[in-house]
Design a protein that fits this description.
The chain is α/β, with parallel strands linked by helices. Helices cover about 40% and strands about 10% of the residues. The chain contains 14 helices and nine strands.
């Protein structure tokens, strides 16, 4: 499948920094910039796929996962703050060593300049705030380093609340919501105009944010629960609240979040992705939908393969009748719209 029209893509979520942090051999930044990595993202394939930039997540994996992935990792020395700051440093190394090919962006204007100049636009995002203390004393330092978006929760409990958990099929109503510290973090994020990511919040946390936040509701990498009943996908009621806030959802490319059977099966067709896009467009309108690939964090449809396959996804969208204007909105314009509304820039 090919397309005569290829749009640049601004994407809402990837786990490249975790992959680089886990790499034990060689120079992971050099491998990203000049070589080939084993996952979904490296600079060569980014250029091939028209990936213009996105939110680059800092994620502290569970200690057991880190031990399984790094042969010399000592589980007892697991330090979320050190891991977070090591991954932030990796993002800065990419920018510093890219010879102008990549830049950390703090505003929509900077993203737009990068896209105009063919420079990879990288926005720092934190997924799961395990490293943040209750007073949020590290937050200003991270903002100075480029942080513009935060998901307070991942799947596990932390001091800010409980993330969404549960087996497939399941409900997002999987536990208690935000703690008092989590509610305080929400207020701080609003005051500092940081995007608050809903994608790993359970139902109680979601509604606390919906009721208290004055920013657009954004789920950076989630899909439609009615089509794939993963607990982390969004219900019709949640989508209605996002629409009412003039918010946004980035579609997750993960097979387990796309398929009606919830399997991590790479035989998933690009048509399944379009099916979720159709459902999101119906609920959110043409200005509220985009991409939140979760590259390097999940298994993706074999037809897509990796970031270099993005033109094939665009071809599937145009074949499904999406206009050029709508394709551009989904690929990047809608992300920049909601970021500008959230950041005020």
């Amino acid at each position: 499948m090919t397309s005569s029209f290829v749009s640049p893509v601004f994407d809402g979520h990837n786990d490249l920094l975790l992959r680089l942090w886990l790499q034990e051999q060689g120079d992971p930044v050099a491998d990203f910039l000049h070589g080939t990595l084993s996952g979904h993202l490296d600079m060569a394939r980014i250029r091939q796929g028209g990936f213009a930039g996105g939110l680059f997540a800092v994620f502290v994996p569970p200690a057991q996962y880190a031990r399984q992935s790094k042969t010399e990792y000592v589980e007892e020395d697991h330090d979320p703050l050190a891991i977070t700051e090591a991954q932030i440093a990796l993002l800065h190394q990419i920018a510093d060593r890219s010879a102008g090919q990549a830049r950390i962006c703090r505003s929509v204007g900077e993203i737009e300049r990068c896209m105009a100049e063919g420079v990879l636009a990288m926005v720092l995002h934190i997924e799961g705030a395990e490293a943040l203390d209750e007073e949020c004393s590290q937050l200003d330092r991270w903002i100075a380093a480029g942080l513009r978006s935060i998901g307070p929760l991942w799947n596990l409990q932390n001091r800010f609340g409980a993330g969404v958990t549960g087996d497939f099929p399941g409900s997002p109503d999987s536990g208690e919501g935000l703690t008092p510290a989590g509610l305080n973090l929400l207020r701080i994020c609003n005051s500092k105009k940081l995007l608050i990511d809903l994608s790993h919040m359970n139902e109680k946390s979601f509604w606390q944010v919906a009721n208290l936040s004055h920013a657009p509701l954004v789920a950076t990498h989630s899909n439609v629960h009615a089509l794939c009943p993963q607990p982390r996908n969004l219900t019709a009621r949640q989508l209605a609240a996002i629409a009412e806030s003039d918010g946004f959802v980035g579609i997750n490319f993960g097979n387990a979040f796309l398929r009606a059977d919830g399997k991590r099966d790479e035989s998933t067709s690009l048509g399944e992705m379009v099916r979720h896009l159709d459902a999101l467009l119906e609920k959110l309108g043409e200005d509220g939908v985009g991409f939140g690939s979760d590259f390097d964090g999940i298994s993706v449809p074999g037809e897509l393969g990796d970031v270099a396959g993005l033109p094939r996804l665009i071809a599937a969208m145009t074949q499904a009748g999406y206009s050029r204007e709508l394709v551009e909105k989904i690929c990047w314009r809608n992300w920049l719209r909601v970021l500008k509304k959230t950041w005020g820039e």
